[in-house]
């Protein structure tokens, strides 16, 4: 676990990422990072995944086509 401190940057708040975290995320200055909600209610900071949009489009297509079946299975 890495402790980060929230700091004021102008009118915004932000955190500074240590070198180890930057290296582990394989990111660089100006690259996008995404804060995603985890299933356990926490958050994850992840780099951009170019395949994510494709995977989500496929998942949404499956959910749309099998909406009734998924609804029955969820009961």
TrEMBL record:
<dbReference type="InterPro" id="IPR037914">
    <property type="entry name" value="SpoVT-AbrB_sf"/>
</dbReference>
<dbReference type="InterPro" id="IPR007159">
    <property type="entry name" value="SpoVT-AbrB_dom"/>
</dbReference>
<dbReference type="GO" id="GO:0003677">
    <property type="term" value="F:DNA binding"/>
</dbReference>
<dbReference type="Pfam" id="PF04014">
    <property type="entry name" value="MazE_antitoxin"/>
</dbReference>
<protein>
    <submittedName>
        <fullName>AbrB family transcriptional regulator</fullName>
    </submittedName>
</protein>
<dbReference type="InterPro" id="IPR013432">
    <property type="entry name" value="Doc_partner"/>
</dbReference>
<feature type="domain" description="SpoVT-AbrB">
    <location>
        <begin position="7"/>
        <end position="53"/>
    </location>
</feature>
């Amino acid at each position: 676990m890495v402790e980060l401190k929230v700091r004021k940057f102008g009118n915004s708040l932000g955190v500074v990422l240590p070198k180890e975290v930057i290296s582990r995320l394989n990111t660089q200055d100006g690259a996008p990072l995404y804060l995603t909600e985890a299933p356990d209610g926490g958050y994850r900071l992840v780099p951009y995944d170019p395949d994510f949009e494709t995977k989500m489009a496929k998942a949404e297509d499956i959910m749309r086509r099998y909406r009734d079946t998924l609804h029955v299975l969820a009961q």
